[in-house]
TrEMBL record:
This is WbqC-like protein. InterPro entries: WbqC. It holds the Pfam family WbqC. It comes from Erwinia typographi.
Length: 229
């Protein structure tokens, strides 16, 4: 899966369904996607934030999409998060997580996004196995979409390949089955939780919103709230 910045809980459902999770960081950057954008909750509504990039283009790989004026973004984002969540029950621990991610040395948006996932699991004291396609399987670049995913799966001796629900429109189970790989999809079952200053639960926000409002035990339950299809 492409690396997304502080992704929503459904992204982590996909990770939980895997023994090995591959950050697909050497595919083309997606404009107006979730690679460098997400949403927080402020004044009862979803507020979008965007990490600025240098000449963001769909002709550039995610791992080659360089950060633009990241220091200014960090300052503004910390202030935005404080305005949104200063009275949240888990404000201090979540701000520590955010600052750890943003204060590390990053060269591109893939670095930041991957860090936001890895540090989440460190915060929960949970081990997961991660790889980056740019480092683990660069020789597969240039293959067809399904062909490359099958090749990476075979490299890892994987019997199953798990994708997000959006992949149902892109990939055929028979193509994977013919190569000896079972194709499955994950359908997240997002559990409502308490959010501040909103009458109606707003799903699909950044994992930051989940961390601000829930303890570790409740979050771990959310991680396993999905179905395979």
């Amino acid at each position: 899966m492409q690396p997304y910045i502080f992704p929503y809980i459904g992204y982590f459902n996909l990770i939980e369904a895997c023994d090995t999770f591959v950050f697909y960081d050497d595919v083309n950057y997606i404009k107006k996607g979730w690679v460098n954008r997400n949403r927080l909750l402020g004044n009862g509504q979803a507020l979008r934030f965007t990490v600025p990039l240098v000449n963001a283009s769909q002709n550039s790989l995610i791992c080659e999409s360089r950060l633009h004026n990241f220091s200014a973004f960090k300052t503004d984002f910390i202030k935005m998060t404080e305005r949104c969540y200063s009275h949240a029950p888990y404000f201090e621990s979540t701000m520590g997580y955010i600052e750890t991610v943003l204060n590390a040395t990053h060269q591109n948006i893939a670095d930041v996004a991957i860090s936001s996932v890895r540090e989440f699991y460190r915060l929960l004291a949970t081990e997961r196995h991660f790889l980056r396609s740019s480092l683990h399987s660069p020789e597969t670049r240039g293959m067809g979409k399904a062909e490359r995913l099958i090749a990476i799966s075979k490299q890892l001796n994987a019997e199953n390949y798990v994708n997000a629900m959006g992949g149902m429109d892109l990939y055929c189970r028979d193509d994977f089955s013919a190569a000896g790989v079972r194709l499955e999809f994950i359908n997240p079952q997002i559990l409502p939780y308490g959010q501040r200053k909103t009458e109606k639960f707003i799903p699909g926000l950044s994992i930051i919103d989940v961390l601000m409002n829930n303890n570790a035990d409740d979050i771990k339950k959310m991680l396993f709230s999905y179905e395979r299809v």
